[in-house]
Amino acid sequence: MMKRKANMALYIFRQRSRFRTVFTTASVACFVLITADYAQFIDLPKIAKIPLWVGMLFSVFRWAICEGLIKPAHQASHGGQAVANKSKPNLRDNNK
């Protein structure tokens, strides 16, 4: 069950590059609108009032899914485990 969810999340993670320009454009538009509303150049309607704990909960879930499921599966499929397990240089053996 978890393997299937990890594969589905990995598929979504890989497809994000297809829509990179769409997400970038939407992000810039949202930033401009929110900044203009904060500076009181425009007055956006208050659509929903989301409590802080809901925002924090979704942030924690997103982070846990990305770091716990998607990133390890992505690294394993692209050979990133060799880079992650690379040994650190021993600084004590500096016999010059």
Q: Which term fits the overall shape?
A: elongated
How many whole angstroms does the radius of gyration measure?
21 Å
Mean pLDDT: 76
Largest sheet descriptor? none
| Poorly predicted residue ranges | none
Task: Determine the fraction of residues in helical runs and give it as a percent range.
Answer: 55-70%
Question: What report would you give on this structure?
Answer:
- By secondary structure, the protein is an all-alpha fold.
- It contains 4 helices and no strands.
- It has helices at residues 2-15, 20-38, 52-77, 81-84.
- Helix 1 (2-15) crosses helix 3.
- The relative contact order is 0.11.
Considering the chains and any ligands shown, give keywords for the structure.
elongated, single chain, 96 residues, 4 helices, mainly alpha, membrane, transmembrane helix
Question: What is the strand and helix layout of this fold?
Answer:
Layout: H1 2-15, H2 20-38, H3 52-77, H4 81-84
Helix pairs in contact: 1-3
Summarize the structure.
This protein is mainly alpha-helical and 96 residues long. It has helices at 2-15, 20-38, 52-77, 81-84.
